[in-house]
Amino acid sequence: MKYFALIFWFFIACNSQNKINEKSLSVPSAPVFIYKTSNDYFNNVPVTLSPDKSKIISYPHPTDLKKGNEYSTPTKLENDYLLDNRGINLNTAFLKLTYYEYAKLKTAPSLTELKSLIVDDNPITELYNCGLKSNFDDIEKQLNEIIKEEKFHKYKKLK
Known about the structure:
The chain is of the alpha+beta class. It is built from 4 helices and 11 strands. The chain has one domain (27-157).
């Protein structure tokens, strides 16, 4: 009986390998968030706070802020909306430091130093989850059309 189970498992495993296609091997795409802030924090480094805003739970290393030669600042969209490129969420806070200033650091500041650098711990005034990046052909153009036509009803409003 033990051998039968082994042979059966082997048969299933081999047959399932034949059914794998390119689409099933693809990695899920990233979620798309657009947002507005209470002030212009376009160049300020975001960090993530705990839900009660008492501590920093996520922050970038200085080397994380660049993609090639470009900083991972948000993408500017219509009507002051921004397309997230860093991981903005409801618990985002912004530091006094710009991407340029932070990226020049050799190491990330301590949590105590980071906490003292927070300029706004509640900057998000609007936040929408617009689905997956793979759902868009030309993300910037399509999001701008949605914003201009005020067709936000298709997306989940988080704030």
